[in-house]
Design brief:
Helix content: 25-40%
CATH architecture of the largest domain: 4-Layer Sandwich
Distance between the termini: 20 Å
Number of domains: 2
Low-confidence stretches: none
Structural class: alpha+beta
Length: 624
């Protein structure tokens, strides 16, 4: 048994060489753009109070060397670009800190202070980014924070830039798109446990950084592991064309819901002729369905919003910057960049629909679809984060769902039972492992992975099965152009060899939970109810919010938690009086510590809590 990464196989080495021969590596414009305007590099890692390193971009210094056989040459190039870090001047008055987290923070100078566009994922990395800016540009106060969309790597670091007291005093405004709080909270609470566990694979958070480990996730290097925070916006933008002037900075907003995020907007700065594209136009193909899991996005609407962006601002814009990657300068180049991004999502959408209407299913479309040369050969449309393969499957899913119409797939055995039957069909576990080894030796890693996966699910303690599957995933990772595919494969190999690494970063943080509305809290409790354990329970609780003049009847019966804000007949078993801010404590049972008042049958609270089954943040992925 080995726990160390292996070398690249001959098959992978040949694949890398072929890709290197057909892509336009002589085009170095991106490197010029990524280094343009550098004021100062990042000088030190971000460290928590207890000495834990939360972010250290210098661990990617190995990318400055020659490409190894264990990294796809296209991904190596993208990772080199994404690892270029520091404080940069986009244009005079507009600055970015890049390489301090998966995402960027952008800083626009006003008459007296600054406006922050996105805040990174962690409080600690956010504070370090602001400190780097102030070291070189002066201690200007923050006048506003603009959160472009509802993903945690764009709002999680906000307490590193401003305090709640500053916001409450009216010193700082927080702008966000319509639906921001609801989507930010729902995504990170409802399915947050599963998403965070899978995100550990997607971003390679537990991988050793190096040529045989983590090299970057395509959209950025990886996620920081600090404190995630959230503040309620003071200003919600609802309409395209809405204008605001803060500290002398004019901002024109373009709504783009249900694109890269369910709640998102772009911002044009007329006085700088600069467009903040949020995350709707970055230097890669983005996800229609992210590998960590999410609601399937709308590539058709995405492309239409980018057309609108060009129509609104294309005549005069001189630079586009985004919440990831590096800017693009010059009107002609900006419009071309936006047009390629627009055409990419439109093409994937339209061609997937064309082929599914011809009867092809998702995996078949993924194998057959071909991008036109203009999109295939543009670096900004390569699949470093999203991929053509998993995106077209997501589009199929968006329109037709999980079922492909073949009745054999309508009622399949669950994974373990299928695996046992496949292994029996193969002639037993040893025969299955031998077949996987033969496929591996022949360079058919996709087939080796399928056989090896069945072997491990049929007998998870069979060491030879674990070994061949880990070896196979490793080679698939080495060959992946997509950063998140590489991370998934190598993370799987790591857990097969060394055991589970859990969930390094959790976005369902206290700040996020605290923003749950009463309805969202009750929904969050409802999805934790152990139905069979609650079949015989029948209880009701009235929740009275003393600071909002609201009253809810919460009912548990038939294994289902329901609620209503309408007047109810009869008395509830229990009455809970609390405030909106303290209400989330109801889910923990720490009522006395938060001043929650309970009258009536107090056992109803305990009975409710007794049938809750929170998610398992360490659930298995590559083993049953």
């Amino acid at each position: 048994m080995t726990t160390e990464p292996r070398a690249a196989s001959r098959t992978i080495i040949e694949q890398q060489a072929h890709l290197e021969s057909i892509l336009p590596f002589a085009d170095t414009q991106d490197f010029e753009d990524a280094r343009r305007g550098l004021i100062a590099p990042i000088e030190q890692p971000v460290v928590a109070e207890d000495g834990t390193v939360l972010w250290d971009n210098s661990t990617y210094d190995f990318l400055e060397g020659e490409r190894p056989d264990t990294v796809n040459p296209s991904l190596w190039r993208q990772s080199q670009l994404a690892a270029i870090d520091g404080l940069f001047e986009v244009v005079p008055g507009v600055y970015q800190v890049r390489g301090m987290d998966l995402s960027n923070t952008s800083i626009v100078e006003g008459d007296e202070g600054v406006i922050i566009f996105d805040t990174l994922l962690s409080v600690e990395t956010g504070a370090a980014a602001l400190a780097l800016y102030r070291k070189h540009r002066g201690d200007r106060p923050v006048k506003a924070v603009v959160i472009t969309h509802s993903h945690a790597d764009h709002f999680g670091g906000i307490r590193g830039f401003v305090t709640q007291e500053q916001v409450d005093a009216g010193e700082v405004r927080i702008f966000a798109p319509e639906g921001f709080v609801e989507h930010a909270v729902a995504e990170n609470v409802y399915a947050g446990t599963a998403m965070n566990r899978r995100a550990a694979y997607m971003y390679g958070a537990a991988l050793t950084r190096g040529p045989r480990g983590g090299v970057g996730a395509g959209l950025g290097q990886t996620i920081s592991t600090g404190t995630v925070s959230l503040m309620e916006p003071t200003d919600i933008v609802t309409e395209t064309g809405h204008e605001e002037t803060v500290d002398g900075v004019r901002m024109v907003f373009q709504m783009a819901p249900d694109t890269e995020a369910p709640s998102e907007f772009l911002i044009y700065l007329p006085d700088f002729k600069a467009l903040c594209a949020a995350e709707d136009a970055t230097h890669n193909l983005h996800n229609v369905l992210t590998l960590r899991g999410a609601v399937v996005r709308d590539p058709h609407g995405w492309s239409k919003y980018l057309t609108e962006t060009i129509d609104l601002f294309g005549a005069e814009v001189e630079v586009v910057f985004a919440s990831h990657h590096w800017p693009t300068w010059g009107n002609e180049r900006v419009v071309e960049f936006l047009s390629l991004q627009r055409d990419l999502y439109a093409y994937l959408h339209d061609q997937t629909l064309r082929m599914l209407n011809q009867g092809l299913v998702g995996p078949e479309i993924a194998e057959q679809i071909q991008l036109p040369p203009a999109l295939e050969n543009a670096w900004s449309t390569r699949g470093y984060y999203g991929s053509v393969s998993h995106n077209v499957k997501a589009i199929y899913q968006r329109y037709l769902g999980w079922f492909d119409g073949n009745p054999a797939h309508l009622w399949e055995h669950p994974p373990v039972e299928r695996a046992k039957r496949y292994v029996e069909l193969a002639g037993g576990i040893d025969a299955a492992v031998s077949a996987a080894r033969r496929a591996f030796d022949e360079g058919d890693f996709r087939w080796a992975a399928e056989i090896g996966n069945h072997a491990v699910f049929a007998q998870p303690d069979h060491q030879a099965a674990r070994d061949i599957l880990a070896d196979t995933y490793e080679q698939l990772g080495y060959g992946s152009e997509n950063g998140t595919w590489r991370d998934f494969y190598l993370s799987a190999a790591t857990e097969l060899r060394n055991g589970q690494f859990g969930t390094p970063t959790e976005t369902n943080a206290p700040d996020v939970v605290a923003q749950l509305t009463p309805e969202m809290l009750f929904d969050a409790l409802a999805i934790q109810i152990d139905g069979p354990a609650a079949w015989d329970e029948n209880l009701s609780i009235d929740v009275v919010l003393t600071d909002a003049d609201e009253r809810y009847r919460v009912r548990l019966a038939n294994g289902v938690l329901t609620y209503s804000a309408r007047p109810q007949r009869g008395d509830a078993d229990t009455i809970v009086r609390t405030t909106r801010r303290a209400l989330p404590a109801l889910a923990t049972g720490n009522l006395a510590q938060t001043g929650i008042e309970v009258t009536g049958d107090e056992s109803a609270i305990g009975r409710l809590l007794g049938v809750l089954r929170p998610g398992d943040k360490n659930f298995s992925i590559v083993t049953p």
